[in-house]
Amino acid sequence: MRFISPKTDFAFKRIFGSTDSKDILISFLNALLYAGQSTIQDLDIIDPYSAASITSLKDSYLDVKAQITGDKTVIIEMQVLNVAAFEKRVIYNAAKTYATQLKSGEGYSKLNPVIALTITDFEMFESTEAVISHFVLKEREELFDYPNPEIELVFVELPKFDKELDELTTLTEKWIYFMKNTPNLDAIPNMMETVPEIQKAFRIANQANLSPQELEDLEKREIFMEDQRGAILKGIEEGRQAGIEEGKQEGRQEGIKEGQLTLILRLLERRIGEVTPDVITRIRGLSSQELENLGEAVLGFGNVSDLTAWLQVNAP
Length: 316
Hints:
single chain; alpha/beta; 2 domains; 6-stranded mixed sheet
């Protein structure tokens, strides 16, 4: 068997966000949010791209969104690249999901809690070796919780997980191992067969179940992600060599943005040919988040008109 990587957005949504994935998602969320306890009994997978009720708000890019037991909303994002201001994006998406629950005229009592679950393929928190970090609002000195924790942030840092197959004992460890190591396996491990939902996830991730077009799209997405990762690293190094003090956050972000820009222009040349200087100038003026959004859209461009239309809508 060959398995697709659940760390790509295509595979993650296919495994956890399809109409047939409710049981998989329940097991996955119970493992990562509630230490394997059967806290979530049922859920509804909802459209993560549904339009906001406030049209001026920035679009959110989530992988899976679900309504779980207790009228809580869970938003899930798998992030492979450590892009600039990512930590701000996590908070923005959680706050936006929380705020846009209300319709005009409804009272604040209608608001339900939101949990933002973020799985990263990079380390976010240098101050801890814990694989899972859970943030809630607390009083600074006495550390008691804010009443009815309305927004929770949960992070799973895959690089910090180093257990081997024969060391896995809990449901949490098995799901994290699945997320990190599936592409490197050639069969479903025997110890995973005791969890029907993980078995089912492996079957969905089996490349044999994908159409030729899906395999081609997946390959393009993986190439794009590796190119972007390389461009970011190159941009960081170029920023350092230009005299930016190593370790400064602003220097790192400048390097990341330059790497994004280099990659975007190269991808655009491959897809639609030469890009005019005035368009390059316009692209240079985009924020890091806008560059990331443009990078995700490039694979769908067929000509210069597609690029121009995208810029008019997303970066007027």
